[in-house]
Design a protein that fits this description.
single chain, four-stranded antiparallel sheet, mainly beta, aryl sulfotransferase activity, 72 residues, Arylsulfotransferase_bact
Length: 72
Amino acid sequence: MSLQHCPVVTAEGHVLIFDNGYGCNFSGSNRHSRGEYKIVGLDVEQIWEYGKERGEDFFSPITSEVQYIEES
């Protein structure tokens, strides 16, 4: 992660973040903008990500935000 911001804590206690991806050595298909992480003590597990599968055209390298929307 690099230049992550806009943290949102979910009902499960996970953290959603927006990640600009600058400062990392990733390019093209290795970038993604949103992620959900389970944090327990010093252990971090990535639960979900969005953007990587949509390619670089969908990646946002500048300020944005993340929002959890419940399924209906």
